[in-house]
């Protein structure tokens, strides 16, 4: 698996974990199962045990289904046009590991270990549930998913913007961004374990070490001015001194500190 695939997978997983629609759907489904008590759980379990059982069942099965749906959605983009179809394939494939996971959960609650044959039977039983899960998830999340999987239409650049277009040799780091955020790179900054990539079309956090991000800039003209900041030459407005410290003023009004290590190079480039 390449870095681009892993980055896309992590980005789409974050899309789910940060969505209130997803968590609302997840919570409602669990409450329905707890209240109705299907498959004999209403008679065999108290309310508290039933809540714990269905919470574990849905947490495990949804996690498996989501991961495989996202992987299929990314891997099949160049072969299948419709997002729902790609996700449905991943969800149906998830039925097999879900069948065996359900057996393990039942063993933990009821003390009966699931045999291999029963595991396959459970996988067949899980197929329609996986399809329903996929439909629910797609209904709740299709707009957000489309923002990632569908390329943004190209904007008509002004003459000034055309001069700021990225180099002919596209920087490798742009492949890590959502299509709608890909543009001329303006600056990079460190954000915890992420690198914040700012372009003419937006900004995005990428799970990538700063040193590795710098290597993926290619021939983009610019300079590292701080251990946590890199700036593109075309985006620098002026160099100024603030309370005895050098600061780069960017064209969008952002102030970027210059560390002592890079002072000479910055003065030579921008003063």
From TrEMBL:
Residues in HTH LytTR-type domain copies: 185-271
Top-level taxon of the source organism: Bacteria
Transmembrane annotation, as ranges: 20-39, 51-76, 88-111, 123-141
SMART domains in UniProt: LytTR (SM00850)
Pfam families xrefs: LytTR
Keyword field: Membrane, Transmembrane, Transmembrane helix
Protein name, entry field: Sensory transduction protein LytT, putative
């Amino acid at each position: 698996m390449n870095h681009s695939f892993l980055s896309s997978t992590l980005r789409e997983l974050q899309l789910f974990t940060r969505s209130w629609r997803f968590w609302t759907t997840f919570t409602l489904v669990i409450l329905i199962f707890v209240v109705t008590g299907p498959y004999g759980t209403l008679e065999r379990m108290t309310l508290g045990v039933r809540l714990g059982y269905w919470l574990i069942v849905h947490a495990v099965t949804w996690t498996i289904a989501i991961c495989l749906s996202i992987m299929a959605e990314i891997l099949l983009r160049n072969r299948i046009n419709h997002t729902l179809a790609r996700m449905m394939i991943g969800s149906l494939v998830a039925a097999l590991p879900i069948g065996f996971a359900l057996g393990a959960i039942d063993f933990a609650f009821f003390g009966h270990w699931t045999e291999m044959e029963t595991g396959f039977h459970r996988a067949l039983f899980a197929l329609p549930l996986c399809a329903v899960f996929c439909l629910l998830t797609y209904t709740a999340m299709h707009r957000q998913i489309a923002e990632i999987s569908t390329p943004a239409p190209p904007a008509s650049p002004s003459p000034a913007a055309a001069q700021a277009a990225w180099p002919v040799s596209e920087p490798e780091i742009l492949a890590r961004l959502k299509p709608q955020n890909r543009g001329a790179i303006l600056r990079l900054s460190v954000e915890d374990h992420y690198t914040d990539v700012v372009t003419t079309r937006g900004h995005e956090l990428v799970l990538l070490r700063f040193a590795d991000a710098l290597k993926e800039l290619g021939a983009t003209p610019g300079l590292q001015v701080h251990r946590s900041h890199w700036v593109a030459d075309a985006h620098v407005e002026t160099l100024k001194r603030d309370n005895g410290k050098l600061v780069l003023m960017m064209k969008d009004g952002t102030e970027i500190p210059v560390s002592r290590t890079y002072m000479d190079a910055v003065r030579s480039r921008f003063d």
